């Protein structure tokens, strides 16, 4: 929802400062990680009386910000993630008024119920050229708490174009003691956005979670608090400001993705951090994530994998094919890449810059909050990509995901690689323990002895103690 490009055009002085600052973004990120990533020592309880039942989907309540105008289209996103869990999901989609009957073309009983937001005309909004709906959207936090659901551990908020991976959110939040005050989310991929808004803010479109104990207190103080922030642009800035006034800082969970990017987000998806995928956002503004598909079809395709092994989604393992000197990167449920040479692990993990900035004109190093590597201008020098074709649960709980070679505009690729058409990846269903979530370790993979020239088979497993991932 944060459309920074709309609002900074007039602020040229700020832009100049911003350009200077953003070249130091790496430093800023480092500082912010140091500040944000610290464990909350005060919140650590480990005595036996603190043991409670594991967190499940029915402990969550979702508050989704939408509108009469956007819901008829955007509900297609909600269908992807709400419908499969329909009977366990609680929450509301907040609209300014109910969309007209003719837009109810599908069975909406499979979607979250619609709630009409309260009137916010008495609140001040003074951000020039901004949208005052930011107040209504910010108050989704308060109005979701006011639904009075029982036995709530976490409130999860997002926009109507936020795609959640609910079981991964449950898994991730179960790391934290919901009785303490937590504000969990992630900031923008764009340094400029983070510099302008805050490195400490959970971006609303990426989605964020607030523990119920914090949410209840926040709801009580919310209205008088947001009056103090009438000069801010967005809804998430208001929520962030009031949580900050309560003395609480962001707990960073990099599985939430605001996706303040344009174009092809392949690079971002193929190099996901080792942490469950929690959300994707802004997919109206990016290319479809699979070639030759519409956005909607491509997301359905992604969910074919997510519905089989949600926790393994986009988890990246790298193996080396010694005989051919190939580097093979598996981003599970999405893509397999073969680099026809030796690429060391730290370089494979860099995000390929396949996308463009959310706000262009800033084509300088340090635009993103992660390390990127430019795409080679010669398509022949890029890795060969194999996109997810299908996922099936084979015998004995082995999951087989197949990836098919994408078109590459190159005529002189190495013969041995040219023949490769399909990669099959054999995995077990991933079920991370709390300890593995707290201290994640990348998995290892092995290339199986080949049975056909056009096909490669790969298995993944936990790495052995002391095992290193490199070309032997
Ligand atoms: C809508 O969903 C309900 C509940 O699952 C079902 O009973 C009903 O048949 C569906 N209606 C249509 C038109 O698909
Ligand atoms: C929730 O509880 C509050 C306080 O008890 C009450 O004022 C409010 O009407 C309730 N809301 C709903 C939706 O039941
Ligand atoms: C799955 O994909 C592979 C590779 O693209 C293909 O050979 C296989 O027939 C597909 N299986 C199904 C059930 O569609
Ligand atoms: C994409 O679609 C076109 C037209 O349907 C087809 O010719 C082409 O082979 C497809 N490409 C891939 C990579 O599937
Ligand atoms: C492939 O590359 C050539 C040379 O760069 C270009 O002329 C051609 O249009 C490209 N073909 C496709 C299908 O992108």
From TrEMBL:
According to the record, the segments passing through the membrane are 16-37
| Keywords, alphabetical | Membrane, Transmembrane, Transmembrane helix
Pfam families referenced in this protein's UniProt entry, alphabetically: DUF604
Q: What is this protein called?
A: Uncharacterized protein
Annotated organism of origin = Lupinus luteus (European yellow lupine)
């Amino acid at each position: 929802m944060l459309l920074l490009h709309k609002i900074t055009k007039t602020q040229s002085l700020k832009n100049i400062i911003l350009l200077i600052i953003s070249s130091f973004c790496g430093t800023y990120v480092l500082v912010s990680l140091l500040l944000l990533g610290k464990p909350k020592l005060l919140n650590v309880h480990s005595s036996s009386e603190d043991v409670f039942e594991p967190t499940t989907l029915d402990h969550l309540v979702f508050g989704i910000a939408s509108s009469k105008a956007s819901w008829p289209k955007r509900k297609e996103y909600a269908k992807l993630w709400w419908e499969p869990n329909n009977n366990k999901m609680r929450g509301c989609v907040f609209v300014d008024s109910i969309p007209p009957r003719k837009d109810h073309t599908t069975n909406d009983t499979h979607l979250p119920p619609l709630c009409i937001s309260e009137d916010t005309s008495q609140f001040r909004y003074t951000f020039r050229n901004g949208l005052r709906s930011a107040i209504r959207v910010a108050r989704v936090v308060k109005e979701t708490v006011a639904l009075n659901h029982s036995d709530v551990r976490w409130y999860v908020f997002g926009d109507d174009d936020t795609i959640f991976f609910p079981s991964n959110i449950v898994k991730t939040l179960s790391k934290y003691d919901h009785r303490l005050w937590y504000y969990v989310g992630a900031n923008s991929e764009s340094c400029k956005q983070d510099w302008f808004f805050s490195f400490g803010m959970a971006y609303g479109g990426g989605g964020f979670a607030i523990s119920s104990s914090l949410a209840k207190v926040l709801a009580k103080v919310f209205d008088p608090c947001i009056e103090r922030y009438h000069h801010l642009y967005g809804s998430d800035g208001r929520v962030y400001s009031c949580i900050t006034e309560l003395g609480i800082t962001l707990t960073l969970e990099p599985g939430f993705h605001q996706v303040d990017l344009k174009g092809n987000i392949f690079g971002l998806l193929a190099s996901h951090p080792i942490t469950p995928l929690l959300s994707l956002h802004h997919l109206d503004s990016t290319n479809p994530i699979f070639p030759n598909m519409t956005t909607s079809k491509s997301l359905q395709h992604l969910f074919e994998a997510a519905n089989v092994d949600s926790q393994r989604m986009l988890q990246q393992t790298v193996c080396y094919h010694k005989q051919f000197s190939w580097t093979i990167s598996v981003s599970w449920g999405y893509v397999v890449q073969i680099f026809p040479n030796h690429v060391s692990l730290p370089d494979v993990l860099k995000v390929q810059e396949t996308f463009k900035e959310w706000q262009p004109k800033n084509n300088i190093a340090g635009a993103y909050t992660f390390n990127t590597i430019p795409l080679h201008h010669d398509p022949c020098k890029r890795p060969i990509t194999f996109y997810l074709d299908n996922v099936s649960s084979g015998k004995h709980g082995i999951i087989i995901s197949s990836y098919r070679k994408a078109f590459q505009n190159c005529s002189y690729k190495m013969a041995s690689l040219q023949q490769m058409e399909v990669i099959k990846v054999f995995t077990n269903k991933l079920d991370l323990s709390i300890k593995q979530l707290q201290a994640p370790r990348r998995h290892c993979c092995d290339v199986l002895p080949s049975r056909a020239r056009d096909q490669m088979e790969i298995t993944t497993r936990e790495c052995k103690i002391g095992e290193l991932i490199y070309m032997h």
